[in-house]
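Re: the pair you flagged

First of the two:
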Amino acid sequence: MRDHAAKSGLRLERGPFRRRGKPVTIHWRDRPLTAIEGETVAAALIAAGIKAFRSSRDDRPHGFYCGMGVCNECIVDIDGRGGERSCMTAVQDGMKVEPHQHGGGLQALEALGPTPSQQPEETPFDCAVIGAGPAGLAAATEVAFAGASVIVLDERSAPGGQYLKPLSPSHEFSAGPSDRQFRERERAVSEAIRAGAEIRTDAMVWFARRDETKFRLGIYGKDGESRVVARTLVLAQGAREKPWHVPGWTLPGVMTTGAAQTLARSYRVAPGHRIVVAGNGPLNLQVAAELLAGGANVVAVAEAARLTTPSKIGALLRATIHAPALIAAGARYRTILARKGVPLVEGAVVTAIEGRENVEKIRLTRTNGAGRDIVFETDAVCLGYGFDPSDEIARQLGVDLVAAPNGNGLVISRDDDGWTGVPGLFVAGDGAAIEGAAAARGTGALAGMAAAHYLDHAPDEVRQTTARRVRDRARKFQAALWTLFSPAKRPEPTKDTIICRCEDITHGQLEDAVERGARDIGTLKRMTRVGMGRCQGRYCSAHVAAMLGAEHPKEARFMPQAPTKPLPIGAIAREKTEWKGHREVAPPKLPITADRDAPRIDIEVELAIIGGGILGVSTALAAAGSGLDVAVMERGNINSGASGGNAGSLHVQLLSYDFGERAQAGGGPALSALPLQRDAVNYWAELEQRLDADFERSVKGGLMVAETEEDLRFLEEKAASERALGIDTRVIDSSELRSLAPNIQDGFAGAAFCSQEGKVNPLIATHILADAARAAGARIEERAGVLAIEEDRDGYLLTTARGLVRCGKLVIAGGGWSAATGELLGLDLPVKGAPLQMIVTEPAPPLIDQLLAHARRRLTLKQARNGNLIIGGGWSATLDPLLKRTIVDMASLEGNAWVACRTLPAVRGLRMIRSWAAMNVNIDGAPLIGPVPGRRNLWVAAMANGYTLGPMMGMELASMICSGEVPARLRPFTLDRFNRST
């Protein structure tokens, strides 16, 4: 990745500003650069003409994009700390900055922050407000004015948000704030403080949960992690700019208009030498005018709407009536462009951005299709095509989304005062719906008053009336404004257009996955990795949902996960008491629905299988290959349950809590299943070869590390028991451990090494097997959950969400939901749900080849092919009674992070980019497979190590069904072992 810094001089010198910060020296690739104290690393690099900040998996350069800490495109390595957001990190004298390579180019990962010394206390407030923009400051002012305690939490270094962004400490006003927005910021901040609100900046809320009475927030900042508990919560997180998916939009030098404005207003830096501003809406005119006023060279402004047509006169008049000052400002911006000779190209959208390692040209196409494309040479493109609400925390807390009244995207469901329907939870500003800054002030004030009223503080009627008037007037203006700036129709992306810029996923790859059967956003995510990067799908989910034709708002976004943004794992690593066994639960009864356009089914087959996970599709593959007419009935989508939520470990040796006194049922059942697990790992290899597939399988052994001599004695006993069953496990000393895994914590006594363990990628493997099953003749019916089962002498009649299925033979393979399915037949199956959770880090340099576990701690850790570390080990998730779904547990996150950091210290130099919870299976430590006693042609299959065992046990089950016989080695694993009527 080469630098593009031949030209410099991008600092804006005009206007009523003067430098305040002193010059400091930072080093970019060992080259000294002069920066200004108080500015960000991103601003300093761009001022020096450097645009490419990181490289992608396929070595494409990426650079500064959103400017607000959301996209993570501007990450760099600073003083040995990998993946720091340059737009959120202030320069320091002597700082060493390197471009960030995908997977991490650092040989040694420095810890990203302080190690927690103790459990943080929860600081109580009556109300917490997330977001210190116009809405958040207004809400906090009203809550405090009513007499309640309130804290405002904002990730940035100073309050104001995107709209009221402050001038950075690197500059100061020469004679007071220079324009209306700077003055309004000073007023809003001072009003909130005078009212009694506490404003805490540098405070990223990464975790939010609600119990019966309070909201609990996990917060991360420069001083580490802290907690806040509040009786009410106001979400005022603002919005982010929508992506514009055209070829070249990920090139360095392409950024959002808001990012360009942040550079110019806060840091007095121009985004380039030849700037094109393009998009849809008034912000683009404002930013272009501000850049020109600062001395930047704007070569063109492109507006998708046609503003000067007779049909827009009425909208212009209405907008002028409701906000004459804003319309006057817009006219002033146009005058500035005209005076500077900058062309304003109306009715044109960006259809391509060209360049090799930096933007070089931009191509515009008329929206009416007339004329030839318009091309400008440029080294900086600012794109502003509208906004999306920042709704991630609201969705974590169970708030519904609804279609926006104007049909432009999704908004948060709420009442007239911002109440979401969740007790104590309110939303305001553009984080609820895109209505503009003036409306945000009104909705913020009303949400604050509603929160105060929830806390039994009566609202001031005069203030309430004033806030409603402000909001209503602003909404009328906004409606007229968006009639004036009618939204642009997006160009169709080419197959090579990148949609997910974090993972470099193209439109063509997504189309291929849809053709292979992806029908929902979660399945498409698992099949392609779209939305799995640092931005967590913020810039690709809307496109993916549109591709799939998602009609229900809940199906139009990726599931919100903790952390809301990448979080240093070490920040939450705290030792926890580890429990025996799993937390058993009855899995929630999930709604069973069918796709509106899915064909109705009324079929008769020889064999029906209930459950479309790894076990169900593997059984179908083997049964169809044996000549059976088979159908799989799946409630949701293939691989959407525990199989898709699996980490992909191929276990052969026992985990520490499956042996000895800590083990379920004394450990005997789990131990007896080890030969099956050994053979199952071999069967994965056979399948891969037979199907000519790539499961991303890797068998480089498993290490269970011992910290002490006592741990080693435990491993010796465990290994001896495993070897007696034909498992290749041996205990190695510290020297050999260091040779096999040099990044393991120094001083560990040794490990048990099992050469037969490994991993596969469950995101792709189940789909490969499902495709093979279909090719063999099996039917796989998705969104066909079973509602009822009737048994007669001819077999079984299944009533599903999509119709009727008659079969002579039936298999229950529903994972944690198998017992619920059994109840439809009057069965009491000994299968419980066990909610477990996993952590995924950002991509890292090669750290560990083996499957890693711990002799007396709960840990499984592996490194995926793309560099992510996948961390688990049986840490329990929780079943949220309010959300009625499985969610991650804060204590489990902390404990799992602590064990991972203790075992592999480099983990402290990584960020957690997502976590997830899934419903695993709990029986007695061993698999359950075979016929149901007393029932004709009915079989059940469920197992805790289901992903390891799935393909082979599916083959075995199909053989049983065809032959009517249970092989001798599987007889110990049938229902007969429970000695009770089923």
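Second of the two:
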Amino acid sequence: MAVNENAELEELIRNAGGNEAEVEDDEGAGLDLVTLLLVARRSLIWVVLLIVLGLTGSWLYLRYTKPVYQSLSILKIDEKTEAGALGLGGALTGDIRQSGNKLSGEIELIKSNIIYEHLKDSLALDVNYYVEGTVLENELYGLSPFKVNYKIKDGSLYNTRFDLTFSNPQQFRLSYQYKGQEISAEYRFGQPIVTPAMELVLASTPWMNESVVGKKYFFVINDDGTISNYLNKGLNVQVVNPDANTIQISFTDFNPSKAQAIVNKIDTVYLQEKLAQKQEVTQRQLKFLETQIVENKDSLQGAEKNLEKFTDRTKTYDVRGDLASISDKLLEQEKERLQLQQQIDLLDEIVALVESNQLTNSEEASISESIPGLKQLGDEQVTQQINRLNDLQWNLRRILRSYQPTTFTVQQLQADVNLVKKSTQRLLQQNRRLLAQQLSEKSAEQNELKNKLQQIPELATQQTRLQRPFELYQKTYTRLVEKKIDFGIAIAGTTVDFQILSPASNPGAPIAPVRMVVYAIGLAVGIVLGLGLIAIRYLMHNTVTNVRELERATTASVLGVIPTYEKEKMSVSKLVVDKSPKSAISESIRSIRTNLDFISSAKKKRLISVTSTISGEGKTFVTVNLGGIIALSGQRVIILDLDMRKPKVNLAFSAENIKGVSTILIDKHTVQECVQHTSIPALDFISAGPTPPNPSELILNARFDEMIAELYQQYDVILIDTPPVGLVTDGILIMRKADIPIYIVRANYSKKVFLKNINKIIRANNFTRLSTILNDARSSGLYGYGYGYGYGYGQGYYDEAKPDKSLVQRLRKQFS
């Protein structure tokens, strides 16, 4: 039966495929808070479990994760000199003082192998000692009850674990892996352990006592690469304030004492390295200065001797002064001569422009713009004459555009142009002759000065050649001596201003993992997973669960809600209202009967059809028990089973299906021959009869209407159990004939897409009286609506047996 129902469901979904997208759009238009709260309530236990799981994961993470500690120190790195206080610092002091942009270099120095080598020599980082705990091992930095002296001959033993177990404070067993084999032996403290691969000697420390017995210890001998990687991983150096030249040194490790010791040692080693580097640089600079002074002193003495010989021979001291005076005059003469030559060249250009009639080609452009150098001549007459000539030439060109060259106006203007042009040329030639005369005079003066310079004894040139190296060596020697004095004073007053503003801190609490953060993450993960579970279950919630969903998705009115029948498990639908007249189901069906009376109060004879979308939604159960309730009210009721393909009404009454509706419609039997009685006197039924090959055609037969008319003579209400309308069309044919068509929707079974089918049927067939009933609704399906009167109301009012439930069952029901 389950296989057939699943096949029917799949077939219905395929048939409704054209409307499925529309249904999804309608459902996605808003959030169904009632359904969401229902899903959240059903998922509450899982949300709680996920939160507990997240917190448990956080606890396990904290339990099996080593805490990480961090030690910090803040240093102020600066260099100052007292040379500035003596007035001799100068630029040297600025070179020595450390600036903020060099802090990155100091950081690299701290993280360099130079510092690491000093740390390896001063701290015992080559051997790590551990004791095993219940879950994690702990490093015994500085607290180990034993110490290892070693000499490794085979490098494969580096980074190898050596296990120790003490039988007494003086005797131990040493075990380790070497070339795939485990080597184990017992030794005493101080006893040499000599093998071809290594030599070991273990000595006791002040922390050795009886408590070591029974505990498991081990140590690891690290090579240089491992130590460097360890320091690189744990060490962090960063600039705190570049203006104040402060940096922060931090080191992280699983052992707080070890982290603090490493930071303290880095501070000390860095100071020592800075002083050593400073001394080395100072010695190199001082040696370079002394070498340069000696070399320059020899050169200066040679220059002094040559100058003394020249003075003794020439008996003169001021030759250089005369030479300088004449040189200055020559420079001035040359400058004036060049200016005159430039003016002459300019006049030549202007003359060429005047002769070619190309002073300017634009009416807007002036002569000053066309000939920028005209102002340098300083002759206003020349400028005015050229401007006049330019204006006449421009007017002539403008008039020629409109007049012939033979017209009087053009000829008169050409005569004026020629006249002014000749006058201008004469003026320019006159100015050029004056400038040429001045240039000749300046050249003569320049030649005279050159002659005077040649008359100066050649000794002046020799004196200049001798004086130049002397002055150069003298200045260089003086500067080097002053530099040496300044540098010596600077060295005496320079100290490395290395201040530890904050010494290495003693880590009190680990920086990671932070317990509150880890628990918060676990809680958040649990909540997120829980919300995700609710969201997934809500999105996957595709069945009708409550009346609100039914009313929201359909236009049909809701007659009522039938609660879940929990008294017994029924393999087939049965009549239960006669056996439990005070049960919740009986009261809910009575409520439906009352609503039916309101709908069809004017009619005494009623034809009621009951259908559903697919099999299994409870239409036969509702039909049988609704008929029983109506019959118990005093009305005569007959139930017709028109689901000829899958008849079930006879099974509800435990009767035969040899004859029935199908045989009546083919006139094989009469109505009275097929009527069967039930335990309720006013309730009869006619089974479907043998399955015919053409059920739809039989219903369309006129004999069907005759059968209904004949039944109206004897019964007040005719209830018809129709086939599912989602699979066949028989149900639609019967619903058209019915006074009140009823559509059954089963809670937590009927798909939401089925509700769209109800609306489609109403619109297509104009079923204004079609009503729906929510069947098999649990208590949650009744919330938020007034249907199902009496269900759960007034404890002990109903006589339905309620077995005691255990705590687990009550909790399961609460969260289901």
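The domain at 547-814 is CATH 3.40.50.300 (Rossmann fold).

-B.
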